[in-house]
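### Sample
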Amino acid sequence: EDEPIVAEIMGRRFFPDLITHKTWEGFHFAGHEIRITEAIDCYGAVVWPSALVLCYFLETNSKQCNLVDKNVIEIGAGTGLVSIVASLLGAIVTATDLPELLGNLQHNVLQNTKNKCKHQPCVKELSWGIDLEKNFPRSSCHFDYIMAADVVYHHPFLDELLLTFDHLCKNDTVILWAMKFRLEEENKFVDRFQTLFDLEMISNFPSLNIALYKAMRKGRMKA
């Protein structure tokens, strides 16, 4: 049943007509052609389908999810596609990842947003669970949205990932998280996540085994 919309999402990707010395993929989002340089030897430098799902949601729900002048942080930004699309949609974006990925991330962000965005996005190191208060102090860092695409997979840092979500999320912060379901151990992370956050599935794509979630902190003050 999800085949037409999955075809539309995946149809946003295009490839170069000629192979050059740099490996890149192209995407059409937010009225722009986005070129992403990848590194096939690193998980964090490849565009995964979850990122396309999240980008498609941001573009097609721009009225309900208005990013103009909103503070957005992407964790595990990888190649930067989600951060780039959020920037093109008017957000004030901080794209974060591990130090070894920042060079390629910075290249992609700058190449695709310079002179195209209301707010030039910034790239910053974020190793999950490490020096969170030092680098992102609770007193001065406020994010309207936390975005994450495919951050849950077979890695040993799920505890640190949950700690990072918890640290960055204020009572009114909205988390948008696209997840590909793989192994049972990683899938259990959803249950742990729900001990801290109210979780709502807003899109589901069984053929891709990907779900898109919206989450907010439990116990927040409600109007």
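The chain has a mean pLDDT of 92. This sample (MT21E methyltransferase) is used throughout the tutorial notebook.
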